[in-house]
Amino acid sequence: MNRQLNRRTLLGAAAATGALWTFPSQSARAMANEEIRVGFISCGGRSGEHMRVFHNMPGVVVAALCDPDESQLAGKAKSFPKAKTYADLRDLLEDDDIDAVVIATCNHWHCLAAIWAMEAGKDVYVEKPLSHSQWEGEQTINAARKYNRICQVGTQQRSDPMQAEIKKFLHEEKGLGKIQSCRVNRYGVRQPIGKRATPLAIGKGVNYDLWLGPAQDQPIYRDKLQYDWHWDFNTGSGEMGNWGVHVLDDARNNVFLDKVSLPSRIMGGGGRVAWGDAGNTPNVHFVYFDTGEIPTVIGLSNLTAGGQSKKSPGHPGPGSGYIAYCEGGRYEGQRGRGAAFDNNGKLIREFKGNSGGTLHQENFIACVRSRDASQLNTDIEMGHYSTGWCNLANIAYRVGDTYSADAAGELSQEVPEWGALIDEMQTHVGSHSVAMNELKLSPMLEFNPEKGAFTGASAAQANALLKREYRAGYEVPAIS
After folding, report:
1. Which residue ranges does the chain devote to CATH 3.30.360.10?
2. Class for domain 160-328+380-463, per CATH?
3. H-type alpha helices, 244-373
4. What is the pLDDT of residue 29?
5. Cα four-point dihedral sign 255, 259, 261, 262
6. Whole-angstrom distance, CA of residue 256 vs CA of residue 448
7. What is the pairing mode between strands 36-41 and 100-103?
8. Which residues contact 321 (CB under 8 A, 6 or more apart)?
9. CATH code assigned to 24-158
10. Which of 108, 189, 332, 377 could form a disulfide with 132 if both were Cys (CB 3.0 to 4.6 A apart)?
11. Is the pLDDT of residue 18 over 50?
């Protein structure tokens, strides 16, 4: 019997009956001294960077490429003519010659693709943010444990040796004394994505059903299908999930030593302002996280400083990084470098690291060979929690109502860093002729990290966003 036809027949029957399609599990072929054959699910820009890195690793082969967009697939196939090509990731996952996959799809595909891959016996390197909604991240952890798979999340700064030096300085040496609060930043200028009068026509070379996968089939009014999916909650997670996950992960790692899985209270606000485009994720976003001991805030903006400026607005610390405010000064961290200052602003120590490189991918391959997931620098569970801060931040924005100065001011009395951030945001949006009452602000949301659910007032509305509605045939399975 034709194996591919048989799978497709079964898949159609499963979709019709609501049953879950699962792949046959296989044991890992790639051991210590064997060649590791890697398949790439998505052939966009980020995946291309991964292809280059893995291709240059000894004992690793770029063996398969997959993308429902013919033009993206053909473009990467020119660089890797010996690699097998697929439009449907399920066909790639049936290939017993593939040991591991790299998933760099739209965010809404990350978890389902990873789960299917692990069910098929593949190890997984999945790009950040791990999940599009919190519940599906939990299922992906369960899949990694159930199928005994190596699963690394792409927060590559975790593989920078500098991180160990920072943690030693802040926590063992207590170089700046006790950490009192944390400010996280992501200020990076972007452009509007356009707003069409009629829905975007999908190119004939795109298998749109596969491209959508778990997402809802909604008309698209932006100008481009690819990349700008980030700014639509149907397929992306906004700037919070795109870059916020990196800087929040850095803070979790170095400020909290990963001891705080998820915050217990969240208040968030922001809006998509000034552009008038088709996006629905915020281009200004500000959030408070109650971590129990170290109050943490994040400020995010994709707007310029206003007027004729092409630069980001003013802010304390690095544009993409974090500040640990301590008794004896402050530490400012960002990708590839960091600096410690005393209370008088004098530089007392600098840190330099590996801002990109290949260390994260090398760590993944080393663990594929050793079969020791405990040596992963961003194990699936660690990536889930860092992504979770972003998911909760986005939920706070989405359940928000009209901005309330009184509610924001009440928190400012408790958390001065929040008050400073609100003042900055008021000046910032004002430079674009936007008033604060054009933004949204959530109530203080209570979250139980152990139960993975919101409690108290507004819980019903917020809990409804912990899991999305999946299209038939592309449901993320519950895994126990």
Report:
1. 160-328+380-463
2. alpha beta
3. 245-254, 359-370
4. 52
5. negative
6. 18
7. parallel
8. 184, 185, 247, 250, 332, 333, 334, 335, 338
9. 3.40.50.720
10. 108
11. no
Residue 16 has pLDDT above 90, yes or no: no
Alpha-carbon distance 56 to 61, whole Å? 9
CA separation, residue 194 to residues 44, 105, 127, 133, 197 (Å): 21, 22, 26, 26, 10
Q: Hey, CA dihedral for 326, 331, 334, 336, is it positive or negative?
A: negative
Task: Tell me the per-residue pLDDT of 262-292, one tens digit each, with 9 for 90 and over.
Answer: 999 999 999 999 999 999 999 999 999 999 9
* Sequence-distant (≥ 6) Cβ neighbours of residue 198 within 8 angstroms: none
Q: For tokens 């600098």, what's the residue?
A: 350
Range list for CATH 3.40.50.720 in the chain: 24-158
Smallest CA-to-CA distance from 37 within 79, 99, 90 is with: 99
Helix 405-414 × helix 416-430 angle, to 10°: 140
Q: Which amino acid does the sequence have at 342?
A: D
Average pLDDT over residues 208-219: 98
Residues 150, 368 contacting (CB under 8 angstroms) = yes
Position 357 confidence tier, pLDDT thresholds 50, 70, 90: confident
Q: Residue 354 contacts by C-beta under 8 Å, 6 or more apart in sequence?
A: 159, 160, 161, 162, 336
Rounded-to-integer distance, Cα 168 and Cα 171, Å:
5
Cis peptide upstream of residue 129 (ω within 30 degrees of 0): yes
Q: Copy the structure tokens of residue 23.
A: 């792949």
Q: What is the CA radius of gyration of the chain?
A: 22
